[in-house]
Design goal:
5 helices, mainly alpha, 129 residues, single chain
């Protein structure tokens, strides 16, 4: 009987330790988020998608605070949200750059059309021979 109780206590203790040991670390999520924020910064997000980039940075800082307080799951959840915000900032910055490039291209094409029309208007009509 004593061996059964002792075995039960040992098994319960092992399960309790296993449960604590299985708490996921927020470090990989935070590292991924930091990389996404840096990619967004490099893509021009500070100028073109500042709100999204600032939101990502804010959430990452809050995730770090949660991790420091021992709330690993909360830190991971918030780090993942920050990662999505950083990816959105990068995508918005890319989209804004594309929109600006198209606008510049359209303006250049319009200028070219106007020059072609002016040149055509200056040429005399070909007389019939």
């Amino acid at each position: 009987m004593k061996t059964l109780i002792l075995a039960t206590l040992v098994a319960s203790g092992a399960l309790a330790l296993t449960g604590c040991a299985n708490a996921p670390s927020p470090a990989p999520s935070m590292a991924s988020t930091s990389a996404s924020i840096e990619a967004a910064r490099s893509a021009g997000a500070p100028e073109l998608a500042a709100a999204e980039l600032n939101e990502a940075r804010s959430k990452l800082e809050r995730a770090r605070a949660l991790a420091a307080a021992g709330d690993e799951r909360g830190a991971i959840r918030l780090a993942e949200q920050a990662d999505v915000d950083a990816q959105l900032a990068r995508a918005r910055a890319g989209s804004e750059r594309s929109i600006r490039a198209v606008t510049e291209l359209e303006a250049s094409l319009q200028t070219l059309r106007e020059e072609i029309n002016r040149a055509a208007a200056k040429q005399p009509a070909n007389p019939s021979k």
